[in-house]
Write a structure and sequence with these properties.
Elements: E1 8-13, H1 23-38, E2 42-49, H2 53-56, H3 59-62, E3 66-71, H4 78-97, E4 101-104, E5 117-121, H5 125-128, H6 136-151, E6 154-157, H7 160-170, E7 177-179, H8 194-203, E8 209-214, H9 223-235, E9 242-247, H10 261-267, E10 274-278, H11 285-291, E11 294-297, H12 306-313, E12 317-320
Parallel strand pairs: 1-2, 1-4, 2-3, 4-5, 5-6, 6-7, 8-9, 8-11, 9-10, 11-12
Helix pairs in contact: 8-11
Length: 326
C-alpha cells in the first residue's frame, strides 16, 4: 500500500498522449482532462518524448493541472526506441522526480520499478488471439509485459471480462486487479440538433437511411461478417434503400490481417449499397451515431468496446456479437 503524506505525486507514461488514432491515446487524453479536477490533491507529471510538444500544442490549455516533463529518446528504430522509453527512460525519470507512483496507461510496465507502479491493461489480445501474436519479437514483447505487469503494485482493467482474463491468464491475484470502466467519449455532449445532423450528413455524404459500422479493420473486428450479414439482409427482402455505411480509416493494403472491406463488398456485389466515408472527426461522432438506424459491431474480442457505449449514448440501436468482451 502507498502511505499518503499530503499531496500524492504521480508520474504518467505519456508515450501515447495526443495520439487520438489509437485506443490508448484516446484513453489517456480523456483521463488527463478529467483527473486534475477529480483529484486536486494529486500532482501529475506527464512524461513525454522530446519533440512531442509541437504536435500537442498548448499543453497548459489542453490539460490544465498536468505538468509536462520532456525526456530524450535514443536514435533507434521506433520499436526499439519505444522499448527503451518504457524500460529505461520512464522508470529512471520516475526515480529522479521522486514521485510516489508511476502509472503506465497501457500494457507496458517497466521491469525495473524503483517506485510503486500501476499499469492499465486494456485487453490481452496479443496473448489470446493467435492472429495477433506476431513473430518472435512480438511474442517476446508480450511475454515481457506480462512479466512486468505481475510486478506492478496494482493493475487497472477496463471491464470485468478483462479483469477475469488478467487473473486467469497472467496469474495476477484478483485483489490487485481493479476495474475502472470507461465512460463514453462524448459524455457531456448534448443531443445533436437538426442543424448539426444536417451538417454531418452533408460532410460525409451520408445516405438518407443506413446501418453503421465505425471502427478498425483488423481481422478481429469481423467487418467481413457485417458485409455478409448485409448481403443476407438484402437477399431476404430487406429494404435496399437502407444502405450500409462503413466509417474509419481503411487499410492501405489488403492483407489477411487487415482485409480490405471494399474488396469484400465488391465480391458480394454490394458496391452500390455500401458507402465508405473514411475517418470521422471526434466531434462528429454523436451525430453520425444518431443518424444511423442501427450500429453494427460484430467484433470477436474487445477489452471494452467503446463504440458500443458511444452508440448507446446517442440513442442508437446496437447489434453486436457474443464475441464482444466487456
Amino acid at each position: 500500500m502507498i502511505e499518503m503524506r499530503g499531496a500524492l505525486d504521480v508520474a504518467i507514461n505519456g508515450w501515447f498522449a495526443g495520439d487520438l488514432a489509437s485506443g490508448s491515446g484516446q484513453y489517456v487524453d480523456h483521463l488527463l482532462t478529467h483527473l486534475p479536477p477529480a483529484a486536486p490533491m494529486v500532482r501529475y507529471s506527464l512524461l513525454l518524448p522530446t519533440g512531442r510538444g509541437a504536435a500537442l500544442g498548448d499543453l497548459a490549455s489542453r490539460w490544465p493541472g498536468i505538468d509536462p516533463v520532456f525526456l530524450p529518446t535514443p536514435r533507434l528504430p521506433r520499436r526499439l526506441a519505444k522499448l527503451w522509453w518504457e524500460q529505461v527512460t520512464v522508470p529512471r525519470a520516475a526515480r529522479q522526480l521522486g514521485v510516489d507512483v508511476l502509472w503506465v496507461p497501457y500494457w507496458a510496465a517497466p521491469c525495473w520499478q524503483p517506485v510503486p507502479t500501476v499499469v492499465t491493461i486494456h485487453d490481452l489480445i496479443p496473448l489470446l488471439l493467435p492472429a495477433y501474436r506476431g513473430g518472435w519479437l512480438q511474442r517476446g514483447y508480450t511475454s515481457l509485459v506480462g512479466y512486468t505487469s505481475r510486478r506492478a503494485i496494482a493493475v487497472i482493467a477496463v471491464s470485468q471480462a478483462g479483469a477475469r482474463d488478467i487473473v486467469a491468464h497472467l496469474g495476477i491475484p484478483a485483489e490487485r486487479v481493479h476495474v475502472v470502466h470507461h465512460g463514453p467519449n462524448q459524455e457531456d455532449q448534448p443531443v445533436p440538433s437538426a442543424d448539426q445532423l444536417a451538417v454531418v450528413r452533408q460532410k460525409y455524404r451520408l445516405p438518407a437511411r443506413f446501418f453503421l459500422y465505425l471502427g478498425g479493420f483488423d481481422v478481429r473486428k469481423n467487418v467481413g461478417s457485417t458485409l455478409a450479414a448485409y448481403r443476407s439482409y438484402l437477399d431476404q427482402g430487406g429494404d435496399p434503400a437502407v444502405s450500409l455505411v462503413i466509417a474509419g480509416k481503411l487499410p492501405v493494403v489488403d492483407t489477411a490481417f487487415f482485409p480490405d472491406p471494399k474488396k469484400s463488398a465488391a465480391a458480394l456485389h454490394l458496391t452500390e449499397h455500401v458507402h465508405f466515408c473514411g475517418w470521422i472527426d471526434e466531434p462528429d461522432k454523436p451525430a453520425l451515431y444518431a443518424l444511423a438506424i442501427a450500429f453494427l459491431f460484430p467484433s470477436l474480442y474487445e477489452g471494452f468496446g467503446m463504440m458500443v457505449l458511444e452508440a448507446m449514448q446517442a440513442g442508437t440501436v446496437v447489434v453486436t456479437s457474443e464475441g464482444v468482451r466487456g
